[in-house]
Amino acid sequence: MPLTKNSKVSSNKWIRTLSDRGQTVVPKSIRDYLNVKGGDSLEWHVNENGDVIVKPKKKVSVMDSYGILKPEKSVNDVDQAIRDSKKVFAKKKHKEGRL
Prior knowledge:
Elements: H1 28-34, E1 42-46, E2 52-56, H2 75-95
Antiparallel strand pairs: 1-2
Protein name: AbrB family transcriptional regulator
InterPro entries: Repressor-like_regulatory (IPR052975), SpoVT-AbrB_dom (IPR007159), SpoVT-AbrB_sf (IPR037914)
Domain SpoVT-AbrB: 16-62
């Protein structure tokens, strides 16, 4: 029976065999329901009742974080800070007689 987002997953039961390498196959209807495909990560948890809970791990890309941190300085501010530090470094070297 195919699952939909309105399906009650707990009312369905699948039995799969564990391979010698500890692998099993997630039924297609569950993969479709969870919107996961080969290469996606699953999180496994055991709750206090001993039930195993498997959930898809949220995919996070760099672009999901874009704009979270606002720059405090502009590019011009950074360029000016570099110029200023070069001047301070040059003065220090000159004072020490190494320039």
